[in-house]
Amino acid sequence: MAFSDNLRAARLRSGMTQEALALACGWSGQSRIANYESSAPSAREPKVSEVPLLAKALGVSVASLFGEAQVSQSARPDPAILASTYRFLVDAFATLGKAVEFETEADLFADVYEWIAADDRPADQRNLVDFAKWRDKRDQERGKGIDEQNGSAAPQVGRANQRSA
Fold this sequence. Notes:
Elements: H1 3-14, H2 18-24, H3 31-37, H4 51-58, H5 62-65, H6 79-95, H7 106-118, H8 128-142, H9 157-164
């Protein structure tokens, strides 16, 4: 999206009018903001020194006004869930007589993290069988039960875990 679209979207998300945004930046009237939000060929973009004022007033990053992806605080992994995920996998693999290797089990780690984030039970009530059922159900809902390369059923790691648990 263009700067004008990103600015308008950020302003609307913040609930501000063009005039309120202009005032928050220390400018009078809304015409400057209207011009910045315009997609008309005659519209001009703000000066470099004005962009941080707009971003601060809107509570967004400068990069987001230019359409650059930013990792939000809400996208940051929850440290408590990370710790629970780690403990669950270490314990589960120990039960199977194996050591978890996180470098090769990154997808599994991500799946367990997602499961724990969605599961509000205490940690001591979670087990491999429940995880395997959740993962199978999630994969079926996402349509991942079929191997896209050859059309056959994809191997289900979860089922193997169920038998081992």
